[in-house]
Design goal:
Length: 163
């Protein structure tokens, strides 16, 4: 049932890019949806599906939240006024959400990372932001073992059903 609800929810928006390493390197504790301030032809570049979240992170500065190291390449049909492709971008959240994030990130070991960038059903660019805790090497190994054992179980069930 949860998978069906997730697919229905995903059909409401168009995913531009995802941070593929995020769930491998971090334990995701909580997620938030944030707007992002974009300039000039950045939205047109995003509509073409151009963006990269690898290595990006969010940081609180005072009562504002900024996204660092998000790569949006210059729009091909843009002019010489294209903004810097790796500039810091302000994230838009309600004040109460920013205060919650501030309290959570003050805890040792917690950080803010973007999970995906997408257009919502109204065509507005949104960022799914996660409060996450970094995984240790042994955590990653246990996840890999669990995935491989699940894969083997699925194969065994599939082969059993074929006979």
């Amino acid at each position: 049932m949860k998978e069906k609800e997730k697919k229905e929810k995903e059909s409401e928006f168009k995913v531009i890019t995802t941070h593929r390493e995020a769930r491998r390197d971090y334990f995701v504790l909580d997620t938030y949806e944030a707007g992002i301030m974009l300039v000039g032809c950045e939205v047109k570049s995003l509509r073409e599906g151009n963006a990269n979240l690898a290595g990006s992170f969010a940081r609180l500065e005072g009562d504002e939240l900024f996204l660092y190291n998000l790569y949006i390449p210059p729009y091909a049909m843009g002019n010489r006024e294209n903004p810097d492709s790796r500039r810091n971008r302000k994230l838009l959240l309600h004040k109460s959400e920013i205060h919650k994030l501030k309290a959570k990130t003050l805890e040792k070991g917690l950080t803010l990372i973007p999970l995906r960038l997408y257009f919502n059903k109204r065509g507005i660019v949104k960022v799914e932001l996660a409060v996450a805790k970094g995984k240790n090497l042994y955590d990653k190994r246990t996840d890999m073992k669990k995935r491989s054992s699940d894969r083997e179980i699925d194969r065994a069930i599939k082969n059993r059903n074929r006979k």
